[in-house]
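Moderator note: this is an archived Q&A kept for reference. The question asked for a predicted structure of one protein chain; the sequence and the answer are reproduced below.
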Amino acid sequence: MSQTHKTKVLIIGSGPAGYTAAVYATRAMLEPILVQGIQPGGQLTITTEVENWPGDTEVQGPELMVRMEEHARAVGANIITDHILSLDLSKRPFTATGDSGDLYEADAVILATGAQAKWLGLPSEERLKGFGVSACATCDGFFYRGKEVAVIGGGNTAVEEALFLTNFASKVTLIHRRDSLRAEKILQKRLFENPKVELIWDHVVEEILGDDNPKSVTGLRIKHAKTGETRDLSVHGAFVAIGHSPASELVKDQLELHSGSYVWVKPGTAQTSLPGVFAAGDVTDDVYRQAVTSAGMGCMAALEAEKFLAENTAETAVAAE
């Protein structure tokens, strides 16, 4: 039977931003509700080694997210396993409806729904994600010191990832399905001038080659977009850089967006275009996309929600039950 949950702060999403917001909001005595979403823990749950989380020389992505959830629960956050299907921001209290049928009412909302990298959609890609297939050079580039890697894509993200990877890899091959890049000219100039970079034009990736014991990438099978001719390319890592899709569907017609579909926030804050609604992490961040920056934004969102509620106590409030 469906229920109605009332809270001062509703946190939607359970990655580093969501769990951090839950910790801070709970410590502020706001008694928040966090709805985990369809992928509890977010993108880090499909990552293996994480070596850039402060305080951990190395930690497995899923383990880190389990610890964050345990921390949020330990301080008293109310964490609910549900997936928000709709969100009405037209009036306060804001209301959300879960896949369970439950209704959520809140005086403030923190969006921490994250983003998903766009993938090629290959079975071999799915099998080797986290074992040589990545969508984040700044996360995983360090593992390819002295090795050959490939980047798939032709926009700013692909070029930036390729340039970043030259700091570690012995060779970076950029594979693009067209005969020219979409990236900014200044980035293209830097790419073309880098001696570690080779470009393969008019090709698409048909299959990612790899071993199963242990799981690892050994190469790519690429196909010429015009002739259909295929050939194999030997690489140790494949970085898919064809863009990200922020999970902003709930608010796309209710909040101001930027860079396509990322939720806009006032510079230096987590405040969206609507008072009482805050955004943190990859749903708003198209630049850094790191766990540590997402966690920082989660902290900001919770503190700003606390301030907003304190300044709006004269308005109709929803008492936590």
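Archived answer notes: The two ends are 18 Å apart (CA to CA).
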